[in-house]
Amino acid sequence: MDKVLEAIKEASTSVASLLNDIAEDENNDIKVFEIEKDIEYIKDQITIIENNIVRIEEKSQWNG
Predict the structure, then answer these.
(1) pLDDT digits (tens, 9 = 90+) for 6-48
(2) Cα–Cα dist 44/64, whole Å
(3) Nearest-angstrom CA–CA distance, 51 and 21
């Protein structure tokens, strides 16, 4: 469960940072590859969450 919470915090921080960068980009200087890198990191964190939830569900089925 610790990995899930850590991944949620990481994804949340990344989303906030990305939104802040976009809001402060008055001259449209943000490059697409920078945004893509942030989105890929968020996707990776969501994958960690999904994988750990699946493991938790599988353990629950075996125990109950």
Answers:
(1) 999 999 999 999 998 888 888 888 888 888 999 999 999 999 9
(2) 30
(3) 29
10 neighbors 51 (Cβ within 8 angstroms) = no
Q: Counting every residue, how long is the chain?
A: 64
Question: Residue 50: helix, strand or coil by DSSP?
Answer: helix
Is the separation of the CB atoms in 10 and 43 below 8 Å? no
Query: Taken in order 53, 58, 63, 64, is the CA torsion positive or negative?
Result: positive
pLDDT at 1: 73
The reported pTM is 0.73
Interatomic CA distance for residues 32 and 36, integer angstroms: 6
Cβ atoms of 45 and 18 closer than 8 Å: no
Q: Residue 55: what pLDDT?
A: 85
